[in-house]
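2024-03-11 09:14:02 INFO receiving multi-entity request
2024-03-11 09:14:02 INFO entity count = two
2024-03-11 09:14:03 INFO echoing inputs for audit
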Amino acid sequence: MSSQYLFAHKHILGLDHLSVPDIEHILNTAESFKEISTRAIKKVPVLRGKTVITLFFEPSTRTRLSFDIAAKRMSADTFSITASTSSTTKGETLADTARNIEAMMPDILIMRHPSSGAAHYLARHMKTSVINAGDGSHEHPSQGLLDLMTVKERKGKISGLKIAIIGDISHSRVAHSDIIGFSKMGANVFVSGPATLIPKKIEELGATVCSTIDEAVNNADVVMPLRIQIERQNDPLIPSLREYASVFGINRQVMQAAKPDALLMHPGPINRGVELAPDVADSAQSVILAQVTNGVAIRMALMYLVLGGK
Amino acid sequence: MSVPQAILLKNGRIIDPANKLDKKANILVEKGIISAIFAPRQKAPSLPKKLLSFDLQGKWVVPGLIDMHVHLREPGEEYKETIESGTRAAAAGGFTAVACMPNTMPVNDCQSVTRLILEKAEESAFARVYPVGAISKGSQGKTLAEFGELKTAGAVAVTDDGKPVSDSQLMRRALEYASNHKLLVISHSEDSSLSRHGAMNEGFISTSMGLKGIPHIAEEIMVFRDLAVADYTGCHLHLAHISTRESINLIRQAKKKGCPVTAETAPHYFTLTEEAVKGYDTNAKMNPPLRTEKDREAIIAAIKDGTIDVIATDHAPHSVLEKDIEFDKAANGIIGLETAVPLALALFRKGHVDASRLVELLSSNPARILGVTGGTLGLGVEADITVIDPEQHFVLREQDILSKSKNSPFIGSKLQGKAVLTLCGGRITHNLL
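2024-03-11 09:21:47 INFO inference complete, emitting structure
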């Protein structure tokens, strides 16, 4: 990294506003933080005295816990608010919730929200650093970054790799962040799934659309099935999960078209037996749990960097 | 507000396409009626002693502008707009008359609501108010509203605007039944099965912003249906807020075949594109949504060649409660009364239309289509007159907006051209001179 480089982002709203040097810097920072989680005493004082709030308006296991652990390993004080415990259930607006939180002087606010653009809205209303932990169908930048980190770690590079993302691309913020991130870093992203779940003009975001999953998976370095987001569907998008599993599910046979050393990734949570066969999920190719481990390091890096860490 | 005894408008450029007039002249208004139009050098008729005189050198004097598509929100949502505040904004924007859409609370689907609107207008309005009734009871799309009584009470048209008439049989019957009552039928053309839950135009920007898109075919499929029903019944249909290129093509073809259709667009559709939504600006959220550059160009071409008959604002006031929130939850619509003149004048400055055509689009055509007075500056007619300074530059500031709601994507924009004097029935409803 050149000595001229300065990480200048106060908020992390999406991968679309991060440059290649920004992404490289985040990945390098995360790699150096990863070791902390393997120590007997998993704590460093870099964010001591800082206040980190997680505000989750949608259910989450991994992401919320991961941010919480990441903040605590950096010695920050963390507080967590979820939709069911927040005053939005009493009719409070998002702006008012944000203003009230800000009045208690936190340093970082991490938010997941069902509306696309909600993190951008918050960033406009607040002086506190905002990290987007998923906004509607828009972006999930920390997931995109941990996916990049995992591939780079396992493959030694990102550029030139073939990445196949399979499934519900329309409703997946992970797909959006991954398409943007992997394309920016020089990989070739192929997407496939039911045409009802492939959004218009996704090619312009950097992805190649394949009509069959075999075409997308063929010779791929990374295969990433996405969860079918049943709870979002109010539209006749697929006839049944049964047919989905048989036509678009990733099983051992589909994986044979990929490179022999291809990585199997999944952002979680998995619907076992729907988009992913259980034996593939648990196979040697699967790096799903390595993704989760790297998630902590990526989130440590993001919190460190938005507060001005060099 | 009283009507001045006599007003002399001197040296302005009189533009009155209905009388094929575009020349420098003086207009004398006495007791609210245009009593003389004469050349500046011509000997003036005997002028009354008590005379209010304006020198309008360099300004346009045009028939009062008529906005045939506004939402005044009264009754029911007076915190967004009232008949008083909305018509005050109209007068400031150069409008002397507005047709107000029926999606109030309650819906204007019966004579008592129409009467209420007209009574409020009588008390407090700064412009003529033409109520538009609902096509269906409660705008629920099921059964016809009572067109006869609506007409008798003072409605000039019917529409379920805000929602489409999804049932084609209901649209057919509405057109047929409205013809008995000489009521204009206005269609909000939208296939809501395609647009449901959409937040902006569908395309690369909606995909990259993670917003559910509204495809342009949602409008076009219904425009085609509406044109077919109008053609089949032979009844006149007016299409509201046209926004896409293919809608324009369909209307152009239908008009060529003699289909009895007229159409309007709004200033934002020939000024902005979906690019304005970037950054999740809820003041760029409306229905139909802002479209692409190709659509914008097609709208301008349609304004030039007559496929589009009317520029109407679709003035849709919403408060911060509906707008300063998450994008997908925000209400559709923007205010437009106070920005229509400068945005329309931009078409003139760029050479797309001449001044007479602009006046047709903003005054004489809406008057003719609605079947109301105005739209011309003939002798003996009521003095609905707008004076426009085409050279005035200004930056639109939130605090200058007279509408109760401030939901405009043009706040902070540099605009050129402004209504500087508005006379409604000889009453001065707006005056910057």
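2024-03-11 09:21:48 INFO post-check: The mean pLDDT of chain B is 97.
2024-03-11 09:21:48 INFO post-check: The longest strand of chain B covers residues 6-16.
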